[in-house]
What we know:
It is a single chain. The protein is α+β, with helices and mostly antiparallel strands and 265 residues long. 27% of the residues lie in helices and 28% in strands. Strands 1, 2, 3, 4, 5, 6, 7, 8, 9 and 10 form a ten-stranded mixed beta sheet that branches. A hairpin with a 2-residue loop joins strand 8 (187-198) and strand 9 (201-208). The radius of gyration is 22 Å and the shape is globular.
Amino acid sequence: MTEETQADKSEWVSSLKENTLKRVMLRVAYDGTAYCGWQLQPGKPTIEGELNRALLELLGEEITVIGASRTDAGVHSLGNVAVFDTDTRIPADKICFALNQRLPEDIVVQESTEVAADFHPRHSNSRKTYEYRILNRKMPLPTMRHDTYYYYRKLDVEAMQRAADRLVGVHDFKSFCSVHSQAETTVREIYSCEVIRDGEIIRIRVTGAGFLYNMVRIIAGTLIQVGLGEYAPEQIDAILEGCDRSLAGPTAPAHGLTMIGIEFL
Length: 265
């Protein structure tokens, strides 16, 4: 066999293998307490790292999943999305069951489905929803310590909602973005921002096309300041227009934040 023929055969085999690959999407729920966030970090426990490890064990392939949202250390999720390519014969909808047997109990794949080969969770139009939970009572509750931020001073939910309404729409959210962000633009669109009191729990639920680094936690911290009377709801306009991180409130602790889910449009 000539070198040219051998090269043609290698190219054909490579092409055949590519044609057998399928792209699988995972919807992943996790308690982020024990992890240093989603993204891989050498020597540190991460959600992405655990998924890659479990997929290698299950499929015998070196896989690096592509996540839709790189949640911070301590942040939780009910439905973050990740995709990967594989040539396994295991049906896509069965992978979640086998994968969960190999994952720690604080990470659970809720669903696995085959998607188009060119589907990319970060380059597709989507609506992401996050919820920040606050326990607003005299004393903390130990059973809520991992996923709810305890705050003892009474918060004015009506004032918080009036402020939240001013965040809806297309704005430059530079004031609500960590100074460490490397985003090319700080303009984002918020579809809805609701502040709901359910007994002693206050939920700040935000839906948008995408979010900046620490954006939802800074929104939560700012709305808490409004609830305390430190900021008037109307000050949100000036904070947005100022494009200065120092104008907004503090970054609320990570453990109160949960990604509710992602809807692809």
